[in-house]
Amino acid sequence: MTIRDWDSRGGNWRLQVLTQEAVLAEWQQFLDHLVEMDVMNAPSVKRLVDGKILAGALGVKPGKWTGMVSPLSSTFSVPLAEET
User: Fold this and answer.
1) Could you tell me the residue range of the domain that residue 80 belongs to?
2) What is the phi/psi pair of residue 43, to 5°?
3) Which one of 11, 25, 44, 47 has the lowest number of neighbouring Cβ atoms within 10 Å?
4) Is 10 left (phi over 0), alpha (psi -120 to 50) or beta?
């Protein structure tokens, strides 16, 4: 039983429960903020720019650098997704 495990480690199980509730409340606040910002589906948003498009726009060959730069370009594509 979890309560016995907490007590056996030298802590009061009531304090553990209060701590857990505080952590859950903070996570809920964070999730509410994400919902308010309308970014809950951000991982599923199609990227507007990929490495090939970026390299073509700059007139250079794609390479390792496009893999490093692509996540930076997606940083701007999430807030702008509704505008396109």
Assistant:
1) 41-84
2) -65, -25
3) 44
4) left
45 and 20 share one domain = no
d(CA 20, CA 35): 22
Helix then strand then coil, in percent of the chain rounded to 5, is 75, 0, 25
pLDDT tens-digit series, residues 33-62: 989 988 888 777 776 777 788 788 888 888
> Greater confidence, 31 or 72?
31
All residues at 6 or more sequence positions from 35 whose CB lies less than 8 Å from its CB, including other chains: none
Instruction: Report the pLDDT value the prediction gives residue 60, as an integer from 0 to 100.
Output: 84
Same domain, 36 and 51: no
Domain shared by 19 and 30, yes or no: yes
Q: Do both 76 and 66 map to the same domain?
A: yes
Predicted pLDDT of residue 28: 92
**Number of domains within the chain:** 2
